[in-house]
Amino acid sequence: MTNDKLPSRNDNFSEWYNQLILKAELADYAPVRGCMVVRPYGWSLWENIQEGLDHRFKATGHVNAAFPLLIPMSFLEKEKEHVEGFSPELAVVTIGGGEKLEEPLVVRPTSETIIGHMYSKWIKSYRDLPVLINQWGNVVRWELRTRLFLRTLEFYWQEGHTAHATAEEAQDETLQMLNIYADFAINDAAVPVIPGRKSESEKFAGAVRSYSIEAMMGDTRALQAGTSHFLGQNFAQAFDIKFLDWNNELQYVWTTSWGLSTRFIGAIIMTHGDEQGLILPPKLAPIQVVIIPIYKNESEKSQVLEVVEQVRNQLNEFRLKVDSREDVTPGYKFNDWEMRGVPLRIEIGPKDVAKGTLAFARRDMPGKTGKSIVDRNQVSSRVSDILLAIHESLYDRALAFRQSNIYDPQNYDEMREVLQKGWAYSWWCGNPECETRMKEDTKATARCIPLDQPDGEGGCIYCGSKAKEKAYFARAY
Predict the structure, then answer these.
(1) Tens digit of pLDDT for each residue in 95-135?
(2) CATH class for the domain made up of 13-272
(3) Is 139:158 a contact under the CB 8 Å cutoff?
(4) What class does CATH assign to 289-395?
(5) Residue 19's closest CA among 148, 131, 119, 109?
(6) Coil, strand, or helix at residue 397?
(7) How many Cα atoms occupy the beta-carbon half-sphere of 351 within 13 Å?
(8) What is the C-alpha separation between 441 and 423, in angstroms, rounded?
(9) Do the two domains 13-272 and 289-395 of this chain adopt the same fold?
(10) The domain 406-474 is classified under which CATH number: 3.90.550.10, 2.120.10.30, 3.40.225.10, 3.30.110.30?
(11) Which end of the chain has fewer CB atoms within 10 angstroms, the N or the C?
């Protein structure tokens, strides 16, 4: 553990991010290039993300299952667009048990193909539909440029795969899951997101339509924080997933897939963090409250620790840590837990014991503004209120930051300027050629075409032709 000063977030956002992950013990670099080891503090954060999503999935009728890590190469080759999209990222096993394999096996980059194969065995009739399965696992994509949590060769995620009798059902499922991701991001992570449709060039390989939630990071870059895909009948036809319908006629099913990964931890870090380190949203923080005992001698110690234990018992509904380290000063502890992003700190010293009070310090409001004195008898209700206030404060601050860094340029020259400092929200004709030229020129992409669209139409920001939709453009991670 170290209390060394972090690089400046304002001066070097990238290095601040990298160093903060290491210092806060969220993750570390693995011996294999581009891979990471998620440390207990980071894994606890991921477990809380899992819990927040999993109960939402199950509340909408989804169940969990597990599918193999290794996929026959022939499976990927059945869906032409899919294999072309993933070919550069594949890790392939050619030797097993000392023998050359008859057929190479792919370490899954995603599971549409293996799940499609299994669905073709399980689905026979309309009575078998819908199939609503999710799995929690890991995947491998051979990325060239990697960064902890944001883009690693191996990462952890959930991937949902559903099969439906009609296109309408599948489309409704796709949008339902997109909205679940948005609800989780806003109400659990305090990360404001924009749900929308991906452009044709940005959609998932093999999908008919892809949707995403897009978030603005603290350096104004965009992050795709979760995706949901309407796959149509592409994978159903490739894997012969058919069912007898109500008229006893054989039909192909309609499928979806959707996923959110450990990349979301990067979103939390870059949305809420400050110069002192992490600021974790209370609903997801591994430790919601840390108690710091303060004393100078054995007499004070026994009095303080007695109250600490009483307060611990009063707060057993929260994820709580008592920092009882003897080898570091209270000031060191303050800085350490601030860097780790614990939402609320409670300080208990001899004066607090004598007065029957506690000193609270909010992580989202550094300095005196975030401090308050609380009656010990009201500690549980006050902690609940403050954690809720912290969540609202984090969300409002992130939303205000996003709104202040989104621009509506009136011409392409203006757009080029604003994309150096934020996002552009502009009319776009949807022509991939316009998007390609803008990307080459500005390094920005169409992040999403938001579901909530203005009335009327306008001229494409690039070519001037008629445009019926506005899109967000930004440089992205």
Answers:
(1) 999 999 999 999 999 999 999 999 999 999 999 999 999 99
(2) alpha beta
(3) no
(4) alpha beta
(5) 148
(6) helix
(7) 4
(8) 15
(9) no
(10) 3.30.110.30
(11) N
